[in-house]
């Protein structure tokens, strides 16, 4: 174990030594790779900020039940226990509110400003109704069960129409799914670009150190020993590029938040983009280093075989 640790420590020192010989070239490669990584990192940052908001929006979907106009008030009131029973059997919890047609008319007059038009009708055109506010919905998957519940409520006697306000939640969930797929495609494509850049960088380094490699082989060095510093070089290239990409995304959040704040105020919201969590940051840096390592592995194995 001590010998293994010592070999890897020497390989890492050797990698830093070679990088110090041409820091300008290494820095340019880091910038190129960072540009490729910045776009998917920014996309993930936006998705991670939007995801909890979309889940919160789906917490309390509502179901509105409108009764037939000729349904007596006694029959309408008698539906309350049946509605509560159906909700309980479905495994949901809800707040049930009865809206008599007189109150519905008052609310409509107060909010719409159509009192003159409604008065001209001569009678109240609104039916009695119930508003069911569901709770315990943790995500959009739970909210999708609302349609099943609505179908059961529609079958109750005297119920003429059922309106669900969770359709927009489904649209939001579908949009989030499309965004995730687009981000995955983008990340995969740019990941290939990163591997190609690292592959070419390591190829040039192998060609530059061709004489050193030949001398090492004359003294009995194995391909594993020779390859190890190049592997570390590729991993360091990916790691530094990941740090630069994440730093660029974090710095860009401030001007973005200034623009988002003005838009969010129109909807009485305080939404802001926050940097990625420590766990996500570490995961992205590990992926960046892994991409660099993969590029180095492919390049070194191919070109060392040619030098044999």
Key phrases:
11 helices, elongated, 308 residues, four-stranded antiparallel β-sheet, 2 domains, Alpha-Beta Plaits, alpha+beta
Alpha-carbon distance between the two ends: 30 Å
Shape: elongated
Low-confidence stretches: none
DSSP, total strands: 4
Q: What's the domain count?
A: 2
Proportion of residues in β-strands = 5-15%
Question: Strand-and-helix sequence, N→C?
Answer: HHEHEHHEHHEHHHH
Largest sheet: 4 strands, antiparallel
Mean pLDDT equals 79
* Rg result: 32 Å
Query: Which strand order does the major sheet show?
Result: 2-3-1-4
Number of helices: 11
Structural class: alpha+beta
Helix content percent band: over 70%
Description:
This protein is of the alpha+beta class. The protein folds into 2 domains: 2-56 and 171-307, no CATH class; 59-165, Alpha-Beta Plaits, CATH 3.30.70. Helix content is 74%, strand content 8%. Helix 1 crosses helix 10 (223-265). The longest helix is centred in the last third of the chain and has 43 residues, at 223-265.
Secondary structure elements and pairings:
Layout: H1 2-21, H2 23-57, E1 62-67, H3 73-89, E2 93-99, H4 101-112, H5 115-121, E3 129-135, H6 140-143, H7 146-154, E4 159-164, H8 167-208, H9 210-218, H10 223-265, H11 278-307
Antiparallel strand pairs: 1-3, 1-4, 2-3
Short overview:
This protein has 308 residues and is α+β, with helices and mostly antiparallel strands. It has helices spanning 2-21, 23-57, 73-89, 101-112, 115-121, 140-143, 146-154, 167-208, 210-218, 223-265, 278-307, and strands at residues 62-67, 93-99, 129-135, 159-164. The chain has a 4-stranded antiparallel β-sheet.
